[in-house]
Specification:
The protein is of the alpha/beta class. It has two domains: 117 residues, NAD(P)-binding Rossmann-like Domain (Rossmann fold, 3-Layer(aba) Sandwich); 183 residues, Rossmann fold, CATH 3.40.50. The protein contains twelve helices and twelve strands. The protein has a seven-stranded parallel beta sheet, sandwiched between helices. The protein has a five-stranded parallel beta sheet with strand order 2-1-3-4-5, with helices on both faces. Helix 5 crosses helix 7. The longest helix is centred in the last third of the chain and has 21 residues. The radius of gyration is 21 Å and the shape is globular. The chain starts with a strand and ends in an 8-residue tail after the last helix. The model has no long low-confidence stretch (mean pLDDT 97).
Length: 321
Amino acid sequence: MIKPHLLITCIAFPEILAQLSQHFQVQSNQEDASFTEAQLIEQLQGKQAAFTAGNARFSRRVIEQAPDLRLICAMTVGYDNIDIAACRERGILVTNAPEVLNQTTADFAWALLLATARRVTEAEHWLRAGHWSKWQLTGFLGADVHGKTLGILGMGRIGQAIARRSMGFDMQVLYHNRSRLTPQQELAANNASYVSKQELLARADHLVLMLPFSPQTRHCMGAAEFASMRTTATLINVARGGVVDDVALIAALRTGQIAAAGLDVFENEPTFNQDFLSLRNVVLTPHIASASESTRRAMQQCAVVNLLAYVDEGRVINPVV
């Protein structure tokens, strides 16, 4: 039997390569090169399947000029780097990796929240620069987390996992979502209360964004939203770049419209607005919320499961299209 051809657009763990090589003729981007649109089109010629992270953009042009492509398996939950409409028109299946990174991402959201509220990275930079010579009563005064109000915009699986972790901090949880959770889900999420977006913005001491990116959610946090928040509030984004208007956020941080932000995602990443670097009241990380070794391996294994199900049974486990 002739093995189908597979392009892996990102680095793959050795055991993943070994497993896939039994069923596919594999071409893997182990150098972690960044493909231009033209390069990705070239790499996809003769390939029936693609395994991707968010590092390659499967635009309409790419989809239309990859005539042999039948399947795209994303190792991520998000798939905004793939033109779903173009895939649907071509009959190309697309899968993602739900569930496997929920807990790790929720852990990281809390790491970012605590670092932002308590000014951890700002204080560390100050210490490393050799400025610490004495204890100061008012040095690096931050915001409490315990006993405060946690707001979550986007209450899916990860949002609910974030809310459950707030129980140890004795927090009140408010959330806004496209649809309200069941009473049982709300109870499990630290007795979370459903409120309007406007009320969420007005009442949250610490606001965490967990929205998927779409044309409808693009810039759902902009100048008007920041103006509705408390001046003492912090904003945490571990969702997707583009959900926040980064220019408006930078302005809000500069003027003290909100107190601080913790960001793991940005518009146009890995390129991002360099004005963030001049701000002391923002914690910046390079899209690493799912970056524990066990979770990243599980994400790749999820893509493998979909690829093998397609080869063996003509179906996939986690279809997006």
